Amino acid sequence: MGLKIAIVVQRYGLEVNGGAEYHARILAEKLSGKYQVEVLTTTALDYYSWDNHYPLGEESINEIKVYRFATIKQKSKKYRTAKRAIFKQKKYFKILKKIGIFDFFDRRFHITEVKHSEIENWLISQGPYCPELVNYIKSNGRQYDTFIFFTYRFYPTVVGMPLVSDKSIFIPTAHDEPLIYTEPYKDIFSVPRFIMYNTESEKRLIENVFKNHTKHSDIAGVGINKYVGEGQALPDSIEAKKYFIYIGRVDKGKGCDQLLEYYIRFQQENPQYKEYKLILVGKNDMTECYEHPSVIYMGFVSEELKYALLRSARATIMPSLYESLSLVTLEGMNEKIPAIVNKKCEVLYEHILKSGTGTSYDSLESFCSALKTYITKSDEELKEEGEKAKIYVAENYTWESVLAKFEKGIDFVTGFIKD
User: Fold this and answer.
1) CB-CB contact of 74 with 125 (8 Å)
2) Where is the Glycosyl transferase family domain (predicted)?
3) CA separation (Å) from 147 to 8, 58, 259, 304, 324?
């Protein structure tokens, strides 16, 4: 069946709750219509610990062949030491700065220079540390025509992609965060043969920050299809259009701590809206408990229930500062549900500006104002806005256009299109 493609991603599975990982899975399934697609991944389910969860070896998921390799856990002390080095926060730096001789010592002895061993320890500790996956790429690189690597920050990409750089397509899922400016990643965007960005803002970020980036690239994103599975009724305790919804990992890294603080403040200050709930769908990784009568944690749910909840929401809320696309925001818009997003995330804010729908917030005051706006909108206003949101997705995120771009990228990497 045509060319053989390997997709390399840190986690893979129907239960995996992550945007890049879901992107990898649906892309694999779509590309399999034309190519022989295999996935190289780890046995991890959880991205905090990278503990081995799935069985080693080969399995099939939705008719895609998946090869799983074990992860090896590293000592947290090495992680802490490496983190201080790459972020230039070694303990004795504070002392040198306090007594006014830091700059002299750095000029004279290059004390902020990050050592190769520190970079290596960072990548191993960042994980998932899976040397057998990297060895497989090294030993079997010739049997694949193209490798597609997901996510700039993790070990399989940073260590594995240079082994097959001439036949690799890189999907960075990058965003403006402190990590991207550190030493381990300074050359990563010059390694692949081709980069496939998710958004214009991601492309601008990389090309402005990394002057030695690969010049061959395109912007594809993903295709968003209307969910066609069986419908499901809402739970009896949940009333349609009487709630806002967040779907994704429930953790601080996604801004959920601030979301919960803001929503509880909103309820405390606006008791007249107490019937409007905040529903959170996804695994709860928050260590701090935010309990309130208006907050409902659903945990991991089926696709049928997820879409039932999505379609009956007043609006979605995406509080994350760091998104490279936000599939769930687009899925909501495709279901005619407007989005309330964190204005400080350029990718999310661009969805709002370009679609002419939804709204954004950058403070408690603007968050509360956004909720009031959607609580007071009439059914007709919500319907009109929903139609505009759906049109935006249809015009910008179709699988037909996405796959055409990937086919062109694969043709370039394999030599069918000349440099």
Assistant:
1) yes
2) 239-375
3) 7, 18, 38, 33, 21
Q: Which domains does the chain have, with CATH numbers?
A: 4-73+127-223+399-413 (3.40.50.2000), 76-122 (no CATH), 243-396 (3.40.50.2000)
Distance in angstroms (rounded) separating the CA atoms of residues 28 and 362: 36
**Tell me: the pLDDT tens digits for 78-95?**
788 888 878 876 665 666
* pLDDT tens digits for range 202-212: 999 999 999 89
357 near 336, Cβ under 8 Å? no
- Beta-carbon contacts of residue 56 (< 8 Å; ≥ 6 apart): 43, 68, 69, 70
Query: Helices (DSSP H) in 254-378: which residue ranges?
Result: 256-269, 303-311, 327-334, 346-355, 364-376
The pTM of the full predicted model, rounded to 2 decimals, is 0.84
Beta carbons of 333 and 161 less than 8 angstroms apart: no
Q: Kindly list the distances between the CA atom of residue 64 and the CA atoms of 27, 56, 160, in Å, as whole numbers in the listed order.
A: 11, 16, 21
In the chain, which residues have pLDDT < 70? 1, 89-98, 102-112, 416-419
